[in-house]
Amino acid sequence: MPGTNRQIRLARRPVGAVVPEDWEHVTEPAAAPGPGMFAGRTRYISLDPAMRGWLDDRPSYLPPVGIGEVMRAGSVIEVTESDHPGYRPGDFVVGTFGVQEYVVSDGKGTLKVDPALAPLPTYLGALGMPGMTAYFGLLDVGALKEGETVVVSGAAGAVGSVAGQIAKAKGCRVIGIAGGPDKCALLTEELGFDAAVDYRAEDVRKALRTHAPDGIDVYFDNVGGEILDAALTRLAMHARVVICGAISQYNNETAVQGPSNYLSLLVRRARMEGFVVFDYAKRYGEAARELAGWIGDGRIKVKEHLVTGALDDFPATLQMLFRGENTGKLVLELS
Amino acid sequence: MPGTNRQIRLARRPVGAVVPEDWEHVTEPAAAPGPGMFAGRTRYISLDPAMRGWLDDRPSYLPPVGIGEVMRAGSVIEVTESDHPGYRPGDFVVGTFGVQEYVVSDGKGTLKVDPALAPLPTYLGALGMPGMTAYFGLLDVGALKEGETVVVSGAAGAVGSVAGQIAKAKGCRVIGIAGGPDKCALLTEELGFDAAVDYRAEDVRKALRTHAPDGIDVYFDNVGGEILDAALTRLAMHARVVICGAISQYNNETAVQGPSNYLSLLVRRARMEGFVVFDYAKRYGEAARELAGWIGDGRIKVKEHLVTGALDDFPATLQMLFRGENTGKLVLELS
């Protein structure tokens, strides 16, 4: 058992983009696991766009991270000692353990994972929350049907890359929107998307007219802002707009940019619907089995972006998401 | 048969609010009904917020009214001569006959109505398109359930006043949003709404917090803009936002104001859905029977705002809608 535990805590609420002063880097004595508990060392920490929302003090689907609290994060830990009957040293466990090097847990809300079945970071990506989010967002909220035209924004990200590949596995035509030629090449050349739109170089509205001439049946939105507005102009009749996130708006210091073209919902008899993946917790197993099958037969290629470093690299790594510097699931691997 | 036919035609596309110069007042020779057709004299002309949209040259659920074309409008005519087996002089017929004094038709898309069953203007209001819109928007798109909390904007208008009363008939708690104390008094004192919010005098967001403390299950939106944004902050879990119209935005010279708070759809697992009443044409009979029953037993009180005048009063009467000067269904009665 280590003597100390390094942690990243929230020092104050960010205004706009998160800056180093918003975090507090703390070293405290490591706690020993009590009766029925286990302890472990953090190996991989998940970085998610949703984290930005957890830092704001406003009502949301989870309470905000409190000032002085350890930053909330999903991670994979390796059990180092255990008084819990279900966990032994050497086991790997996924849970919302927070941004800290050393973890003590009673096991609630955690999941033991097998590194022989999938690389450990995949349990934070395609087989973790991003994969679940893509799966239920597209299939349940989006009510995807074979042969439909699907557009995914943030398509080279953790959720978008899986969502687009699920849509392909389901027999849809898929167009991804991403930033930059490298990400766009990844989508079409490696991940099997039918087309890619580089929002930094192209007029998204025009590009969607070209690539989805009969309109968009399902638009899976991770970004909000102008890209959402462009997609709304190209909806097919009875389209479904799945609101998964709005990363373009999370660092706004002013109001969120609402979709000016929302009246397309009326003209096209379409719906826009939001969801939170936690609501599907009882069905994670079902999704994980189907996703693992697609990964196994190559229909879903897992994209992970590993940054290897120390716990103190968490704040800088998080910023990569908001600058679009990651391709696939961004994970901090503790060296 | 009259010698001439007065018509209001679209002279040019309005920019922002419609002005007199956008219309052309024309007198042309009246056409005689051909074989299998009937002719009639216009008695009541419907004025609808949607008319503003029909004047813009952009893709919508109906083609725009062409420059030089007779303005599209629903009306009640009285048959004056007929070679059609189904229509006799003295019959009253509802149809999209346009803003003109004298009409010739083959009967397609028209409906004979009985003035003994309901006053003729009611076939343009609670038993016409506004009634159908309220019925299918609330019950089908909104998927209203007994005991839910419903908020209706434009609640003293043709659609809103019926929508709110349908929700009451279905056992819901209903809050109406309208402009001015007279309209608000109408809602609570005459139409049975549980509460009314005067958007001109009150902070709508705060008022909704007071009147819908557990959140809004169904928000039926006729207005868009800031009122839509206020309602979005108060959604209950799994709420349905029905996009029926956006009268606050129709005369904009700049972009439509998109709903900044649309991410509430995510937090509250809610959906926002648009519709066009024409899609329900096959079920109009079902809706009309149920609405007529509620009108008959007093659960729905019909509110009509009759302006008596000449055909040339159409442009000025239409403007009343956008200034909020009507209470209930606005109809021009030709004297």
Please describe what this structure looks like.
Two copies of one chain form a homodimer. With 335 residues, chain A is of the alpha/beta class. The first copy, chain A, has two domains: 4-124 and 302-334, Quinone Oxidoreductase, Chain A, domain 1 (Alpha-Beta Complex), CATH 3.90.180; 129-278, 3-Layer(aba) Sandwich (Rossmann fold). Helices cover 24% and strands 26% of the residues of chain A. The first copy, chain A, is built from nine helices and 15 strands. Chain A has helices at 50-54, 129-141, 158-169, 181-190, 204-211, 225-232, 264-267, 284-296, 314-322, and strands at 4-10, 23-29, 38-46, 75-82, 92-95, 102-105, 111-113, 149-153, 173-178, 195-198, 216-221, 235-243, 271-274, 304-309, 329-334. In chain A, the strands form three sheets. In chain A, strands 3, 4, 5, 6, 7, 14 and 15 form a seven-stranded mixed beta sheet that branches. In chain A, strand 12, helix 7 and strand 13 (271-274) form a beta-alpha-beta unit. In chain A, helix 2 (129-141) crosses helix 3 (158-169) and helix 2 packs across helix 8. The radius of gyration of chain A is 20 Å and the shape is globular. The model of chain A has no long low-confidence stretch (mean pLDDT 96). At the A-B interface, helix 7 and strand 13 of A face helix 7 and strand 13 of B.
